[in-house]
Amino acid sequence: MDLPAGTRNYSYSEDVTIFRTGTQKFLLAVLILVLLTAPIWFGGYWLTVANLIGITIISVTGLNILTGYCGQLSIGHAGFMSVGAYTSAILTSRFGVPFLAALLCAGFLAGAVGMIFGIPSLRVKGFYLAISTIAAQFIIIWVAKHWTLTGGAAGMEVMPASILGFEIKTPTEKYYLVLAITIIAIFVAKNIVRTRVGRAFVAIRDNDLAAEVMGINLFRYKLTAFFIGCFYAGIAGSLLAHISFSTSADYFPFLDSVLFVGMIIIGGLGTTLGPILGALAIRLLDVLVTKLSPTLQSAFPNLPPGFTSGIAPLLFGLAIILFLLFEPRGLAHRWTIFKSAYRLWPFSY
Amino acid sequence: MAELLQYVITGVTIGMVYSLIALCFVVVWKSSGVANLALGQIVLLSSWFAYAMLVQAGLPPWLGLPLVIVFALLLGWVIERVVLRPLIAQPILSLITVTLGLGYFIQGLVGVIWPQSLVPFPALFPKEPVHIGTAVVTQEYLWAAVISLLLFGLLSLYYRYNKMGIAMRAAADDQKAVQACGIPVTRIFSRSWMFSCVLAAISGVLVASIAGSVGTSLVSTGLLAFSVVILGGLDSFLGAIVAGPIVGLVEIVGSGYLTPLTWPEVKEVIPFVIIVIVMFIKPYGLFGETRIERI
Q1: Is A206 part of any domain?
Q2: Which residues of chain B from 105 to 144 reach within 8 Å of chain A, CB to CB?
Q3: How many Cβ atoms from other residues are within 10 Å of residue B2's Cβ?
């Protein structure tokens, strides 16, 4: 159901094209136009939200490669993000490394740290791996809080990102930076999972014994998955640091790690669209709850003051549970169903 | 030397409380193979409920605490029936993430009902400290240690001699075979969750009573218990009861001697370092069953 009725692929290049038909290309052009002109009709607040969503999408896309495609659960992704954030912050402010180089270094270091904590994945899986990534999260955050190099609990100031002497300071400039990197990240992720490496990941996820028998080096590919997933987290963390001009251990709580897993569940595991939809859904829900909180507080005066702080986690938890129970393939699957329905309308199949 | 004795005794008694929380985990894992990552939040919820009973409603302990137990039984039943039953035979990834979602949900629920971050909790045990040699231990810790040993004994006996307990062990081994023998697997799951929640409630009340307060820090106490189960082995009661004091001991002795050398909060990270070390050296723990994969 990937293609509209009547579209046929006659050559390999047609087969691997992502945007195949004229309608798809048109819609893509509209989307890009909308995204590029967004600062004109978004207010400052929504631009900030959009930046956060973009960064979340990058991080969750990485987690999706690791968990959705390779099947290795990581509940420490916020921790790996913090590695990227601190690396980039230290490199730019203490050593004067240019932003783009620092961004890449952040990705590589986060990937390396992720690989270290991914080593147990060769011997253990499932819950054991989940626990060791939780441990990674707490150890990384603890180190960040206590090491003098990382500024301790107070965190550290981060210089604005500058590319070839151009400093990125206003929300609009930040938006374009995040947008560009998000698009690159999604594009690369989409292509990684279509290569030999990506197919190896899927084989490992579906049945690791069978994959090994087929000649896939489990250790190497699992570590590669950890590296790629955490590389994305590092990039996202670095961006977050340069956009908020500061970084501290509080930016990367354990609950965010859980939330990232929730996002790929809600969006749809093992799809390119999943992380985007999941991150959008959760972040917008968060904004909605924040906006509604004062209203709710005055609407229910009988409830204890401050009860609205619990609403967001309540809804997130509920969303994760409900999606797992009723739509384990996530919003991406719903979107596919919707697409095939409107293509075939008015016939049911 | 005097301080070492003090550290050892404090560590072991604190560790017994960790053991108790670890037992909640093992009970569920042993019979249904579900890793309960919402453990800390269940402990949190039940101790808040205890706070509501004992302080907000002002009930005496002999009435309030049994109500907490009843609440825990209900909680376990509801969790199993609503959240985990539909996911039987689903991939392990779903089972793990659903408990994460559950934990998030419970934390939100607690935030909605009791938005206060920290409230005082009445002490349930006499406060006078006990002197062992040169060391001083508060009586509460000793009571907690006794209670967790007692519960460990009861659970071990139950799993060894009671028909249902034997069925639970069998279910952990092979669900299909157990079902074929005519044993209701769903009832086993339901019962193990109820047991687990009762244990969580007991440990929640104990921890709250020892700390003298109820607050979100209980969640991290629940996380500490993971290092106990990992060290002891996921499916072993003995592992939990042995590893708890070890973790407590390493935590207290380690922080006692390392704090002057390094940082003041070195205590927080020790359990997680233990997890990583165990994961690299002996991933199935001290007493856990090593899984051998056959094709």
Answers
A1: yes
A2: 105-116
A3: 9
Measured CA to CA, the distance from residue B292 to residue B81 in angstroms comes to 31
> What does the pLDDT read at residue A240?
93
Give the closest-approach CA distance of A61 to chain B in angstroms: 17
Confidence of residue B236 (pLDDT cuts 50, 70, 90): confident
Domain assignment present for B289: no
Q: Which residue has the tokens 């973790």?
A: B247
Cβ <8 Å between B116 and A304:
yes
Listed in sequence order, the DSSP H helices in B114-162 are 139-161
How close, in Å, is residue B37 to chain A by CA atoms?
A: 9
**Contact residues, A window 28-87, toward B, CB-based 8 Å cutoff:** 67, 71, 73, 75
Contacts of B280 in chain A (CB under 8 A): 119-120
DSSP bridge pairs for B214: B119
Q: Which of residues 8-37 of B touch A (CB under 8 A)?
A: 35, 37
Residue B251: name the closest of B21, B19, B23, B10 by CA: B10
CA distances to A160, B217, B235, B240, B241 from A146, in Å: 24, 20, 35, 31, 32
State the total domains in chain A: 1
Is B182 a member of any domain? yes
Domains of chain B: total: 1
CA distance to partner chain A, nearest, from residue B272 (Å): 5
Domain with B204 in it:
2-281
pLDDT on residue A2: 67
In a domain, A249, yes or no: yes
What does the pLDDT look like over A308-340, one tens digit per residue?
A: 778 888 999 999 999 999 988 899 999 988 888
CATH of the domain at B31: 1.10.3470
User: Cα A58 from chain centroid?
Assistant: 4
Place of tokens 């409603």: B57
The answer to whether A305 contacts chain B (CB < 8 Å) is yes
Retrieve residue B48's tokens. 């808040």
- Its domain, for residue A132, covers 47-254
Q: Is residue B7 part of a domain?
A: yes
| Domain contains B135 | yes
| ipTM, interface predicted TM-score of the complex | 0.89
